[in-house]
Design brief:
Largest sheet: 7 strands, mixed
Low-confidence stretches: none
Number of strands: 7
Helix content: 40-55%
CATH superfamily of the largest domain: Butyryl-CoA Dehydrogenase, subunit A, domain 3
Order of helices and strands: HHHHHHHEEEEEEEHHHHH
Strand order of the largest sheet: 5-6-2-1-3-4-7
Mean pLDDT: 97
CATH architecture of the largest domain: Up-down Bundle
Number of helices: 12
Shape: globular
């Protein structure tokens, strides 16, 4: 790995993200159509220092705010939604260490992150009763070390990771995260992801067969949810930022296409499609949706930062509800705008060779991560009855 830059502050983090996004955008459509995995791009991302920006200042990181983190993901997703999705779990599991890691664990793993090491994830399982029915087992041996056994799916980032955080249940059925090196014996990462969207995330399968795990690589994740927490809010904020980025990218593509390639409808009597008042009306509507999603994302990030400064049951609830609101808006907007791209751009925009459909495929795939209908329920209960949202990692 090449030398890794250490980013100093929020302003530098945003500048680096904008520069990388501009470069990543250039071949995003080609990567999608060829399913060319972004190994080189991720090496650039690591070398830039962006994956380390949430490392606490006491360990040498920039410790950027939630607003900066959300904007980084929005910028990257506007360039390439697959590429932006890959480090989402990385930041989530950096946050797990902030919350529950011992000082020694933090010192070691934050040092790894500052050296450009990436975290993936082995969290979700298929064929279980529901998303939190985790059956991967973390069995403790007589010497205090552990052994992991299980099968994980949708393991975004694992193929590209140096460390793979694995969500598993210990002997007492409590949830833990085991940080396992990519080359650990008994661990196999299978590149079998075939989603219609986010094609290059490599969100495939992880097999765990008698994987040895030293005791100092295990974190008691269940303790995170025994008090006010921002684990779910931060994770969901990044998902919302990805959706907002997809929406803005789709709108920008639609604008460019109508300005440069679309013909005016013959009944309009106009010289260009961009002068058509019906198209102008629709673009205005879409722009409002995108701006609203971005504004709600910024508001949610401010709520997360406020709660991090003064974490209570009330501030954590307010942050979760603000993030849920942003996520609902961004998810709906991403799907709507990515679909409306074809409505406003016309028949030619549907040509497969143009690759404009990747925005809709990415939006439709990513927004399936967890159902926004449940977020609307929690928002309604909070507004109407003052019911705080539940403590779990999906809200």
């Amino acid at each position: 790995m090449s030398a890794v830059h250490v980013i100093a502050d929020d302003a530098e983090a945003l500048a680096v993200a904008a520069e990388l996004a501009a470069d990543f955008r250039k071949e995003a459509a080609e990567r999608d159509v060829r399913r060319r995995l972004p190994h080189a791009e991720l090496e650039r991302l690591s070398a830039s220092g962006l994956p380390a920006v949430s490392v606490p200042a006491e360990f040498g990181g920039a410790d950027v705010g939630a607003g900066t983190l959300a904007e980084i993901f929005r910028l990257l997703a506007a360039a390439d939604a697959s590429l932006a999705q890959i480090p989402q779990s990385h930041f989530v599991y950096v946050n797990v260490l902030r919350r529950q890691g011992t000082h020694a664990q933090q010192e070691f793993f934050f040092g790894e992150v500052l050296r450009g090491r990436r975290f993936g994830n082995a969290q979700s399982e298929a064929g279980t009763k529901h998303v939190q029915d985790i059956r991967t087992r973390l069995a403790r041996g007589p010497d205090g070390s552990y052994v992991l056994d299980g099968l994980k799916h949708y393991s975004t980032g694992a193929l590209f990771a140096h460390w793979i955080p694995v969500l598993a249940r210990a002997d007492d059925d409590t949830l833990h995260v085991a940080y396992v090196p990519h080359d650990a014996p008994g661990l196999t990462v299978v590149d079998d992801w075939d989603g219609m969207g986010q094609r290059t995330t490599a969100s495939g399968t992880v097999r765990l067969e008698g994987v040895p795990v030293p005791a100092d690589r295990v974190v008691p994740h269940h303790l995170t949810f025994q008090g006010p927490q921002l684990h779910g809010a931060i994770a969901q904020l990044l998902h919302a930022a990805i959706d907002a980025g997809i929406a803005s990218a789709a709108l920008a593509e639609a604008v460019e296409f109508v300005r440069t390639k679309s013909r005016p409808w013959f009944e309009s009597g106009l010289e260009t499609a961009a002068e058509d008042p019906l198209l102008i009306q629709r673009f205005g509507e879409l722009a409002i949706r995108v701006r609203a999603a971005e504004a709600l994302l910024r508001e949610a990030a401010r709520a997360v930062d406020a709660a991090r400064d003064d974490l209570t049951d009330d501030s954590a609830a307010e942050a979760s509800i603000a993030v849920a609101t942003a996520k609902v808006s961004a998810a709906e907007t991403a799907v709507e705008v990515a679909s409306a791209l074809f409505e406003v751009a016309g028949t030619r925009s549907a040509l497969d060779s143009l690759g404009l459909h990747r925005h809709w495929r990415d939006a439709r795939t990513h927004t399936l991560h967890d159902p926004v209908r449940w977020k609307v329920q929690h928002i309604g209960r909070y507004v109407l009855n003052g019911t705080r949202p539940p403590r779990h990692g999906l809200l």
